[in-house]
Amino acid sequence: MPTHNHDDEMQLGSHGPEEVDASTGYEQKDIRVTGIIVFLTALAIFVAVTGVICYGIGKIINAHMDKVDGPTNKWSKSVDIRQLGNLPNNPAMQNKVAQLTQQFPTPRLQTDDGNQEIADMHAREDLLLNNYSWADHAQGKVRIPIEQAMELLAKRGLPVAPVAPESALLTGDEKPAVHVPLTNGFARTGYEQDLAQGEEAEAVHGKHP
Fold this sequence. Notes:
Layout: H1 6-13, H2 33-69, H3 91-103, H4 115-130, E1 133-136, E2 141-143, H5 146-156, H6 190-207
Antiparallel strand pairs: 1-2
């Protein structure tokens, strides 16, 4: 047999979670500003205390630096270079700097990855190999193009060197024999090949605009 009635159930239910009436479509209570005021006050106090601590640390560091470096004078005081304004160009100074740069002792730092320097070296070698030039002007010795030198060498042949006495081979040794030329000249780099292709494309484009 139940010992509680309907009034007791209503009394217990009044202490349960508060039900929110959403029928109005807006908040029916004002926001509590006490917590916001407390947070902002604490934040302001924290910022103020931090600023005072940083200022004190800065003063201590500056005092220590002044003690170590001595008082500020005309040699140690800082100068505002913005007052000088923009300095005018000086061609003579620029030429002097360029001369000093050229006279700087080698090895110098490369201005690129070395591809252009290799291409310039091969271009100088091509000029030396494919054109006439003086080998010794006083003795009248002239360098001839390499193609012409190869033709003359093919016609005249190589000078025969005296036969050197051969020593007996040691056990397990074999007489060396050269079956192919050791080298056929330097190989063009990819950078030089790209330059040559670009020059050929420009030449073709110039002939057929």
